[in-house]
Amino acid sequence: MEKEQRESRSGEKFTEELANLGIELNEHQKEQFDQYYELLVEWNKVMNLTGITEYEEVNLKHFTDSLSIARVKDMHQVQSVIDIGTGAGFPGIPLKIVYPELEVVLLDSLNKRIKFLDEVIRTLGLEKIRTIHGRAEDFAKKKEYRECFDLCVSRAVANLATLSEYCLPFVKVEGEFISYKSGDSDEEIRDAEFAVKVLGGKITDVDKFQLPGTDMGRSLVKIKKVKNTAGKYPRKAGLPSKEPLKK
């Protein structure tokens, strides 16, 4: 009964906002999002996953926000994705639910979040998706991860220069890093241009919009990988955040 009430209250709004992104969920996918929501709220009682727990807000501010990448990227043309600093699984798990053909890697530095993500993957029956526990600075040096992904995504809270050093080393040449930022990130984006260039990238687009049904301004920053990242990047753990690359 509770689930039916949620569906009548919020399911239509979620469906409508996804339709605006060109996304139509089948019944199995709707059920997966509901299962994800239930797990998020349940685990959030014992660990800090999100400050947003109301059904409609989770649909809009986590699920729809994660899928807003469809505004700027044809995800059907992507084979492999790595989500850096995935936290509670955003945007990686919503992308995997909607685009089941994707090969997805979720990276996070906190082991208890990894356990939560593994439980989500198991409960939802997701395939071709796995978690890795550790720091981006370490995994980006590993041959099996370095410059291996078509797309890197991150909703992590760090400045763009720092995020670029974490993320661009994972991206293939001609691939992309897309960063989810707030709507008022113009100065941060300008300040990151030097770091992006040094790391082999080029900012090609900044898509600004308001997240539907909220007062949240968003920016999707598209960075194309135009050449290989020099082997010395990323620098050792901690340095990208303490000393972002700048002129």
TrEMBL record:
Record has Transferase as a keyword: yes
Its Enzyme Commission number?
2.1.1.-
Kindly state which keywords UniProt assigns to this record, in alphabetical order. Answer: Cytoplasm, Methyltransferase, rRNA processing, S-adenosyl-L-methionine, Transferase
What molecular function terms (GO) are annotated for this protein? rRNA (guanine-N7-)-methyltransferase activity
* UniProt keyword annotation of NADP present: no
List localization entries.
Answer: Cytoplasm
Tell me, in one coarse class, where this protein mainly resides: cytoplasm
CDD domains linked: AdoMet_MTases (cd02440)
Recorded hits in InterPro entries, A to Z, give: rRNA_ssu_MeTfrase_G, SAM-dependent_MTases_sf
What NCBIfam families has UniProt attached to this entry?
A: rsmG_gidB (TIGR00138)
Give a short account of what the protein does. Answer: Specifically methylates the N7 position of a guanine in 16S rRNA.
What name does the UniProt record give this protein? Ribosomal RNA small subunit methyltransferase G
Q: Which organism is it from?
A: [Ruminococcus] lactaris ATCC 29176
